[in-house]
Amino acid sequence: MLMTRGDCVMTAVGGRSPFHATAVSFNAALPDSVNCFLQIVDNPRRAGLIPSMNALFHPTIALLQSSSLTNVVQQEIERAILQGEYAPGSKLIEAALAQKMGVSRGPVREAFRMLEEAGLVRNEKNRGVFVRDIPIDEAVEIFDLRAAMDELVGRKLAQSITPAQLKEVKGLVDAMEKAVKADDARKYHLLNLKFHDRLVEMAGNSKLTAIYRKLIKELSLFRRLNLADGWLLPISAGEHRQIVKAIASGDPEAAGRAMFDHVMDSKERTIENDLRRQERAREAAGGAKNGKGANAERQ
């Protein structure tokens, strides 16, 4: 496969003539080959895609054999939402996203449907699609479910974690503590997500992992807002260090309790932060109202 920065050339197996397709930016983190292939798959006639082409000529095609174009688009939009690129309540424009990713509007529309089922967006009739803003009551319910699940994970790992797995999670906590020292809340948030996801994955219960990941995606907004307060980062990092210590001790009760307490502490911080945000919003609204009143009096 021959590549240039703005244009890609792919040669079909069997000596057939190469075909060209202009690459459209999809994600800066992905290789140009993905950009090219997305454009080709979504526009097969314009790209001159050969139906009998050997799909093994490039690993990108092997990737998209198991994941449709719609799934790739859905995963990219989901990533952007979870990392805060699209704020809660913001409108997602179908045409703009299609152009940005170099695909037609069909896969974007289908991706919206999948994201709505996952609880990350809402579709309002005659208004469009918006990033969902999780209400505090629903967030509290998710925290309670997560606490029970994490307690089970802690108990399981205290009995089953391997030395290699323990080394991995210790490394994640080390990286989290470095992020605290660098005052890098965004990096800490991503490491925090990875730490908990890996613990759940290591527990070896696929059903629990699937349910947990759905809940965590919905809860991502509040977790990110909690960690935006820099003074909380050292507290959170210390709790993660305690979780690893409890799991390493081999004591199921201590490990389960450490994980349960961490989630419940996070819930309390979420409630307190939400109350503070509401108070600040009321103060801001009151200040704006008073300002308008003063202007009216002067007039």
In short:
The protein has twelve helices and six strands.
Task: Describe this protein's structure.
There is one protein chain. The longest helix has 47 residues, at 252-298. This protein has helices at residues 32-42, 44-47, 59-66, 69-82, 94-101, 105-117, 136-160, 163-181, 185-202, 206-227, 232-248, 252-298, and strands at 2-3, 7-10, 19-22, 91-92, 121-124, 128-131. The chain folds into three domains: 2-66, no CATH class; 69-131, Winged helix-like DNA-binding domain superfamily/Winged helix DNA-binding domain (Arc Repressor Mutant, subunit A), CATH 1.10.10.10; 136-283, Four Helix Bundle (Hemerythrin (Met), subunit A). The chain is mainly alpha-helical and 299 residues long. Helix 5 (94-101) packs across helix 6 (105-117). The radius of gyration is 24 Å and the shape is globular.
Give the terminus-to-terminus CA distance.
72 Å
The proportion of residues in beta strands is: 5-15%
Instruction: Name the structural class.
Output: mainly alpha
Q: Give the overall silhouette.
A: globular
- The number of strands is 6
In the CATH scheme, the class of the largest domain would be: Mainly Alpha
CATH topology of the largest domain: Four Helix Bundle (Hemerythrin (Met), subunit A)
Order of helices and strands: EEEHHHHEHHEEHHHHHH
What's the number of helices?
A: 12
Contiguous runs where pLDDT drops below 50 for at least 5 residues: 1-57
User: At CATH's second level, what is the architecture of the largest domain?
Assistant: Up-down Bundle
